[in-house]
Write a structure and sequence with these properties.
Layout (H helix, E strand, L loop, with lengths): L2 H14 L3 H6 L1 H14 L4 H13 L3 H13 L8 H9 L3 H14 L4 H14 L2 H19 L1
Length: 147
């Protein structure tokens, strides 16, 4: 694939940021945009990540999981997919959700949403020490947000 097409695909994926704004406001526009990224570069993990986020946001969890897995198989980082962790939590796969959330928190330690999900995962897995440490970190994040 030529560099301009790759750059266009990456820009489009970045702009869409998971397509959640389209999924909420204009579902068909979000789907077309996600599909277009796949047409431009079907081997780009970001393209599959974009489709996964769209499917996840619109409740199509089976397709979301397929797209998340494809994105990961093409080299996408676990930290790029906190939505996949939430999906895994919903189906009871807390160990894999923990792996994804911990990966994300290493990249974005101030992400209060991810900290909250991680606390729930620690509780479910019976890891009370990690939950307590996460609670302390989460409290600091929330206090900084108010200041």
């Amino acid at each position: 694939m030529s560099p301009p097409i790759v750059q266009t695909t990456q820009s489009l994926c970045s702009y869409l940021g998971g397509t959640s704004q389209f999924a909420d406001e204009e579902p068909q526009k979000g789907f077309r945009a996600a599909r277009k990224t796949l047409e431009l570069d079907p081997e780009n993990p970001e393209s599959h990540g974009t489709m996964a986020s769209y499917c996840y946001t619109t409740g199509n969890w089976l397709s979301a999981e397929d797209s998340f897995r494809k994105s990961l198989s093409l080299g996408s980082a676990l930290s790029d997919h906190p939505g996949y962790a939430v999906l895994l939590m919903c189906v009871g796969n807390f160990a894999k959700a923990r792996e994804i959330l911990e990966s994300n928190i290493r990249v974005d330690p101030m992400n209060g949403t991810v900290v909250g999900y991680l606390l729930a995962v620690y509780e479910k897995l019976g890891n009370h020490e990690s939950r307590q440490e996460g609670y302390r970190k989460g409290k600091l994040i929330l206090m900084r947000g108010k200041g």
